Predict the 3D structure of the following.
Amino acid sequence: IFSPEFLREGKALYDNFYPSRIVVGEKSKRAKEFAEILKNAAFKEDIEILLTNPTEAEAIKLFANTYLAMRVAFFNELDSYAMHHNLDSKDIIKGVCLDPRIGMHYNNPSFGYGGYCLPKDTKQLLANYKDIPNELMKAIVEANEVRKNYIVEKVLEKAPETIGVYRLTMKAESDNFRSASILDIISRLAFKGKKIKIYEPSLKKDEMKYYFSDAVISNIDIVENIDSLDSCDIIIANRIDEKIEKYKDKLFSRDIFREN
């Protein structure tokens, strides 16, 4: 049986109790029994159950995450357009998302999608399109790299010598920075010769080698106290919280709605 999970980071327990749907990749009596076990373990009363073949169940997971990545990429490119023309991203996004077919969700700009699922699932799905004509799937993967490069350009336009980084985590209330876009942004800035100071309580100095190459690591320093960012010319943050508010005059972030 292949039964994909649809758990959001930081919301896994809630999503187990209130699942959006239950998908079981086998059409059989035991698959139905397994689905009922998951349903009975939840608090939500009305849960859609879908029994499919195993490959279709896997495809559901990959296409769902790729769609979410596409939505992230779309609003990031909307934000890039607004930045370039000095427009108010927040107003444009609000106006677009008031269309009920689009909805006011999953629309907060960022430095790019990352985490456990979206980077690997989009690339896996694209690899499965090897002999199938496609443009959109390829563009979703490429759009994330384009966004990171654009963020680097906007930071460099401010001509900083020392750049502070507030947190590496993908989301608020998370300690995960696996495949976080800000890691690539830091590497590209450090490769340009910029000095980087990172405030990330979840990262130890001896772990830097797992996230940054030898070519840039000499330009990167991990600081233990947020006040160590005082001397930085600019501070970048994928997501903002109250701890970084005191640096608002030199803060660079695209966290418009202050949500994940």
Remarks:
- The longest helix spans residues 54-84.
- Residues 99 and 126 are 30 Å apart (CA to CA).
- Helices lie at 12-17, 29-40, 54-84, 89-97, 118-128, 136-156, 181-191, 214-217.
- Strands lie at 22-24, 49-51, 162-166, 195-199, 220-223, 234-236, 251-252.
